[in-house]
Structure formats: structure tokens, C-alpha cells
Amino acid sequence: MLHHEDYPYLQATVIREILFQYCEVWSTRDSQLVGFIEGLGILSAWLHEALAIFYSYTGDLSKALDHFLACAIWQKAHSVFLTSVAPSLFLSSKHAEIWTLATSMEDYESETEDWDLGAVISVSFYILKNSIQEENSTMTELDTLENKNDACSKLEPCSQRWQKRSQLFFFLTATRDAVSLFTCHLSELAQ
User: Fold this and answer.
1) Residue of 48, 53, 79, 175 with fewest CB within 10 Å of its CB?
2) What would the mean pLDDT of 53-63 be, rounded to a whole number?
3) Is residue 44 a contact partner of residue 10, using CB atoms and an 8 Å limit?
4) CA 66 – CA 69 distance, rounded (Å)
């Protein structure tokens, strides 16, 4: 497809649309087809994005997370990690995988909304857990206490923000109930 000055993003839009539309076909074929697509100069980030959306749609959220990370869509990766992958891994006692995924996203926390309410809790939890388990190691007691204090201090703002959100949720729920009660009372008066 030729580049046209009046429509500078047309080529990229069409290619990405084709990747999304036929993702199931090209992703399940042998790796030669994927290699051929990459050989055409199509960005691997576009392939990963299409695969991430495809796996999200099919419910394989672990694979979706891998592809969201590969195409650097940090907000969506963070969301999938928190809502699906981390709880599943935690229940399966795969703590090392949680640690690896959470720390891989840590460098991009500034690009992730509500990072301080999400993956940072996992990171802080594992830092605290590991420091407690390492008490018998060669670390000095002061160093251990400093690590624990640092991990706990990262959890404090999370706790405060969750408390504020809980208070806001309570306020909104109470307001909704009051409006409902008031509306019910007005309808009884009108009868």
C-alpha cells in the first residue's frame, strides 16, 4: 500500500485492522507465517497487541498479559495482572511468577494509572515477606528492620487511598439510598 500525504495513518490503520480481524488465523498457523508477516516490516508490537486482544477475548488472560507486556500497553497489562493473573497465581502458590511480573512492570509505574493501588502492593508484600523470612540470614537486625519499615511505608499510602475510596463508596451508596427513599416518599405523596 502506498503512502498518501492526505491520509498519513491509513496504511498503519489498515494493517492493524487486518491483524486484529485475522488474528485467529495467522496466530494458529505455523511460525513461518508469523515470520513472513514480520518479514513484511510489520511492527512486532502490532502483532503482540493483536494477540493480546485475541487472548483477552478467548479468556486466556495469562497469555494476554504476556502480549500486553510485549507491546508495552502498561495500563492494560496492569489491569489484567491485578484482576485475573495475580489472584490465580497467588491461589496456585506461584509467588515467584507474581514477583517477576510485578517487578517487570515497576519501571513503567509512571505510565500506569493507580499503580500505588495495584501492583506496588504485590511488590511491597513480597519485599516484606522475604525480609521476614530472611531474619535468620547474615543481615544485621537494623538492616532487616529498615527493609521492613520501607516495605510497610509503601503500603501506608495504599491503605489511606483505599480508605478514602471506601468512604467515597459509602457516601455514594448512602446518597443513592437517600434519593431512592426520597423518590419513593414523593411517589406515595402523589398518590
Assistant:
1) 175
2) 94
3) no
4) 5
CB-facing half-sphere around the CA of 108: CA atoms within 13 A: 17
CB 86 within 8 A of CB 101: yes
Element (H, E) at 53: helix 44-58
Question: Within 10 Å of residue 89's Cβ, how many Cβ atoms?
Answer: 20
* Phi and psi, residue 7, nearest 5°: -130, 75
Tell me the three cell numbers of residue 84. Answer: 485475573
Of the candidates 34, 116, 132, which has an alpha carbon nearest to the alpha carbon of residue 82? Answer: 116
pLDDT at position 67 is 94
pLDDT at 138: 47
Rounded distance, CA 125 to CA 131, Å?
A: 10
- pLDDT value of position 82: 87
HSE-CB of 86 using CA atoms within 13 angstroms: 22
Which has the closest alpha carbon to 85: 108, 101, 96?
101
pTM over 0.85: no
Q: What is the pLDDT of residue 175?
A: 59
HSE value, Cβ hemisphere, 13 Å, CA-based, for 4:
8
